[in-house]
Amino acid sequence: MTTAPENRGGDRPTASQNNPANISATGGAGGKGTQAPKYIPGMKSLGSTGVETMAQQGGAALAGDPVPPVQAPTNPMESMMAGLTALDAESMDNLPISDGVDIGRGRGSSALPARLTSPINQDENIALIKRYLPDLMNATRLPGAPDSYKQFINYLKNLIL
Amino acid sequence: MRWVENNFFDHLDKFANSLGYDNYEIAIPLAMVPWESPEDRDIFILTITGNEVQGGSPDTFRAAEVK
Q1: In a domain? residue B36
Q2: pTM of the entire structure?
Q3: Is residue B30 assigned to a domain?
Q4: Using a CB-CB distance cutoff of 8 angstroms, which residues of chain A are in contact with residue B47?
Q5: Is B12–A143 a contact, with Cβ atoms under 8 angstroms apart?
Q6: What average pLDDT does this structure show over A13-28?
Q7: Is residue A34 very low, low, confident or very high in pLDDT (cuts 50, 70, 90)?
């Protein structure tokens, strides 16, 4: 008794997947972007995959994904820094950038080491102006000296007299 | 000798009028800086004050030259 050759299962030479006539020369048509995502019950979560990460970062829409990707927020620093000035910014030590300056937040110049403070105090400034005021005044007599300069020299002259 | 741009007196005029006379203690040392050009100085002033540079304009000096 002869039996008919088995034509089910296995990787047989006569199986349809091994028939060259069944191979498309132009490739498959793909999902055309219309395939809805499928829920697979009981499927174990694989955690954050590259595809998910790309979707979170606002990447291109996935084929068949009916939900538009969430747009990545723009620079968050812009909203965080809104209404702040440079003097309000915090340094890396959580101190205001104006710390050590007599204006803005933080400690005043008294917090600076002595070697960083200006060696010239108010009296020395006045002495310096007194010393060079004649030269500064001579410059006001130069042809073309602007009125703004003359007014400033008058201010200095009144300051020391 | 006439008033010229880009020397100590010109710098002092610009800094004192841009920063305010009360800030002469800052204006004087800044006027001593050997600025590369008046444009560099003016950009510096614009950066720290946010306003146009105050003081005598170059037109003032050119008018003096004509005379």
Answers
A1: yes
A2: 0.48
A3: yes
A4: none
A5: no
A6: 72
A7: low
